[in-house]
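User: Predict the full complex structure for these chains.
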Amino acid sequence: MINAHGCCCRFLLKMPGLVFVKESLVSSLPVQSVACTAFMSHFSSTQLVIKTCRKMGIQTVAVHSDVDSSAVHVKMADEAVCVGPAPTGKSYLNMDAIMDAIRSTGAQAVHPGYGFLSENKEFAQRLAAEGVMFVGPDTHAIQAMGDKIQSKLIAKAAGVNTIPGFDGVVKTAEEAVKIAQDIGYPVMIKASAGGGGKGMRIAWNDEETREGFRFSSQEAASSFGDDRLLIEKFIDNPRHIEIQVLADKHGSALWLNERECSIQRRNQKVVEEAPSTFLDPATRRAMGEQAVQLAKAVQYSSAGTVEFLVDSQKNFYFLEMNTRLQVEHPITECITGLDLVQQMIRIAKGYPLQHKQEDIPINGWAIESRVYAEDPYKSFGLPSIGRLSQYQEPLNLSNVRVDSGIQEGSDISIYYDPMISKLVTYGATRAEALAKMEDALDNYVIRGVTHNIPLLREIITHPRFISGDITTNFLPEVYPSGFHGHQLATDSRRELLASAAALYIAAQLRSQRFLLSTIPQERGKWELCVELGKDRHNVEVTRSGNTYTVSLSFSFSLSVEVDAGRVEVSGEWNLASPLLPLTINGTHRMLQCLSREASGEITVQYLGTSFKVRVLSKLAAELDSYMPEKIPEDTSSILRSPMPGTVVAVAVKAGDTVAEGQEICVIEAMKMQNSMTAAKTAKVKSVHCKPGETVGEGDLLVELE
Amino acid sequence: MAISVLAYVLPLDCRWYSVSHLSVQERIDKKRKAALVGGGQKRIDAQHKRGKLTARERVELLLDPNSFVEYDMFVEHRCSDFGMEQDRNKFPGDSVVTGQGRINGRLVYVFSQDFTVFGGSLSGAHAQKICKIMDQAVMVGAPVIGLNDSGGARIQEGVESLAGYADIFLRNVTASGVVPQISLIMGPCAGGAVYSPALTDFTFMVKDTSYLFITGPDVVKSVTNEDVTQEELGGAKTHTAVSGVAHRAFENDIDALLNLRDFFNFLPLSNKDASPVIECHDPSDRLVPGLDTIVPMESTKAYDMLDIIHGIVDERDFFEIMPNYAKNIVVGFARMNGRTVGIVGNQPKVASGCLDINSSVKGARFVRFCDAFNIPIITFVDVPGFLPGTAQEYGGIIRHGAKLLFAFAEATVPKITIITRKAYGGAYDVMSSKHLRGDMNYAWPTAEVAVMGAKGAVQIIFRGKENQAEAEAEYVEKFANPFPAAVRGFVDDIIEPSTTRKRICRDLEVLASKKQVNPWKKHANIPL
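Assistant: Here is the predicted structure of the two-chain assembly.
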């Protein structure tokens, strides 16, 4: 069981890896007394399951693809079986291979983790046919909740709020008003035949409804030749809040409070928290009870999640039900103290629920950040790949839990989900959990792949997020022109420049420390010039402490004059470490050194964002003005891949004329297709890629004339 | 302070007694002032406009502040033809600035050609100045850095200028292997002049503003009728990627000089000096867990040798030499527990890491530099063999491959070798094998030491037989692992990749006192 106050680090993460559960070793625990073997698929989830199984005395078998044979979950499990090559269709989704693996290892149960086969009813059926236990709900529940339309009907019948609406012919404006009043304002009116948000009008009162009716029915008739109108409840400022349920095979069910998952990009969750800042006890209870009603209505057993959309008036509406363990479940574990994997295995074994509803607490606050291998500066995150040349989780901090399926040296490939880890922090209050998250993100060392820590850190420190004023449109609302990293204020700019100067001086001083050579006279003053972007800053550094020491670590205390402002910087650094803790004007900060070049270029991660600065001596800075400006490559005639992936289609050949904005080719990576378009109207000079080819980030695809 | 005031006051008092003293002091000041501006402000401005710094600015940036001690500031050219004897054609110091100074506190001799004086052309006096500091550098035991920016010979001086070149060449050769010599090409360097950089240990270039060629585009056009630009013929890109003449190129003067300072820190001052040791913050016993998974399961799949090198060396700091030339071999400097080492590694990412003509020559020259200057050599082996084909055979792969073999065999510095995967055929022998006096030879569990790959081997051993696949599997079982080499003692141990750094650091401590002497000879006869 997890100690709610000490989020221990025992989760899993990343890709699918099926875990089979095998023979119990000890028999003092109730679950073990039944020989059970669980299989799972999904790296991080796999690790999590393996850890819980081990605690319960259950042996585990991990399945993996050939490229993952040295993955962490494979090493952790008691046994491991390779089920095929890297593409998921040939391995983690290859049911035949997985069934063979179950038979050959004699596994008695399968835990599907999340993703892959976790919500596949055919897989559950095949397991049942072989008498292998599936750690998850019964097939009929997976099926019932798997269909979006059917699940809504079932939910409605079970008394769960669904988004009210009317779809049909509306004859008069007054009829429209009546429908709108029945639904309750605000409502959304549009032609049924119009796809998406096209021609959508929002009405907040009767007058606006009449107007909306006029426009929409005209449009319906003229544009689509179809009179039907759709009038539906408009969810303003929607928030995504979900309820964790736990149901056993004896008809009992519990709700384990909510998780707020409103911060999303492209419908994928980025930051989650439990509980939600938005719910009051009454709403929470109402949502929980409806979730339990739904679980009972489909005779659900195991852990499941009922997702709701919640509007600004705290009206909530059923979205869908996930019949598996979810990525964000750890935050529920943190605030309730329950081990969901353990509960799932108990339930699968047929044990009744251990807890009563009144036993389920909300202890403190938990935040989860999904750390992805992706470039947050491109559409809030385009996949990136690479080898984790350095990787260090912030586990030195208390109340931090990291579920990852990777380690230093792991390859982030184009084959799977680009998630690096789920970073969970816990605190007695939300403020405490958020401060811890800030710390954890600053202490998280990831090198070799581009990651989204800059975005995560900006989100959790944004005033709107801190005040709880969030919706599912948070990112596009807050960053309408895309994410551009941390925006430096006067103070933080000064601090950054001062830290960079200190790092430069540290490296300079050390580079004179040769064994058996006379050590040059200690310097007490440096006149530097630090370049950040196009701006240049004069930086004067003086030693404020008595001395500095360089051996083994660089301990210093410097007084830095930047742009007519004074910054006191002190710290003790190991220059071989990527983490450089320092105190700037009395505030503790964690600086990360990403690179340090002989040319004075220093890249540091500061406040989550990486900044490139150039530190020069005063002389070099003066002479720098004579250096010729390098003309950057004209990128409008060159199309490069924005991310690593596979070329799906190439729409042009050499000699074709393309118009600006015309699609040139499509790149797919990690289940995402990206259409590449021409930046100008021109003739195609040459094509450097073929469909089916793998390309790296920045690879030349097509050249225009 | 007091002394300088006295020195100043004294001549003032003397002026009533001796007119000539006064005029000497004035002349000294005047000459010094003139020397400091070289060819004059107009030419300095022109130099800046070209994106280049002046000879003195370069020296100042290269050396520690206030450490430069200048020699021969008063030397002038001695040419009296073509009006050169006129005062306006005399420049104190002539077209080169020479002297010594410090880089991070360590002594270095420097000459910096001054393009503002007669286009940096080489006069007899210019050559004499360079020779003077080179002679002293060899005597003292300190490296020589040349900052080249010269239009060529001083044509007005004729054969005297040619003699000057030869004097420098001779010194380049006699100093070779005694003190490190580095050339940084920061402008034109054409004709006979190119041979001085070519004789030095390392040649670096500045992108877009430096050229090296025997004959310029005009002569090329008239002789071979080829149309070629200066940049294509002898620019930084050509020499770092195509010809292999230069070892690395930098963005501009400042970038080049700052990088040179960084590079200098790796070098010992002379062949009498041990490999330098610098303060190190990176624990010598650090494990590198990422290395355990770096070699892919399929032996045909590539990986980046640089990932291994960066993981193992101090602070991921690796100064690569010739990064854009013969990329199938990686060479460069790094540190282990603070001590400079030379790294040689096959690069599986490029041409499967095979050895060919260019990579053999690149590797050989680097190994010989390390050996000459007491720098331990660490070799990472993943080599499928020498590259086959007529191009290679006609080009003399036998002769050139022998250079690398020769260099490794001849080297007496500490030699540590890690076989990460393939070590096939003759290339296994070449890559610092135990048989060539490797001091510590390790194999990772993924190592395969064999005459050739399983497929080829089976085709020969079982020619015409069926069941080739079965035979291949048997061969793999038998030879595609480190055991055949380990049971014979050809590798000293099979080690976990993550422990490699720890092992190397420990070995280097032990081998620091290594003494090995080759038989007396005038010099060896490396197959050139």
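Residues 19-37 of chain B form the longest helix (19 residues).
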